[in-house]
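BUG: 3D viewer hangs when loading the predicted structure for this chain

Environment: internal workstation, default settings.
Expected: structure renders.
Actual: progress bar stalls at 90%.

Input used:
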Amino acid sequence: MIYLKADLKLTKEDTGNSGVASVSATIIFRNLMGVLCDKTGPRYAMTMLMLITVSAVVGIMFVQDAIGLIICRALISCGLATFVASQFWQPTMFAPSIVGLSNATAAGW
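Structure tokens produced before the viewer hung:
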């Protein structure tokens, strides 16, 4: 963040806002991901989420100001909602005798 502050001339408020946007987007998208997994299934929901995230990862290369940084950080943090699809898949992929272990492993990974 040190290099970004200097290059983009960010204030403390800008870096704080980018952190808030990042955490807020993660919380919102985790809840949305649950609904999407129920409606479309985890495979399609994960695909949509990864397409959003990859475009933000590419977009962050072209950031020139604080607003661009805030938007890209928020969209990249949406990728953390893949955790929900992973947890959704676990009971269908593993035997009931080890599904708890697989959930714990996937959650801690």
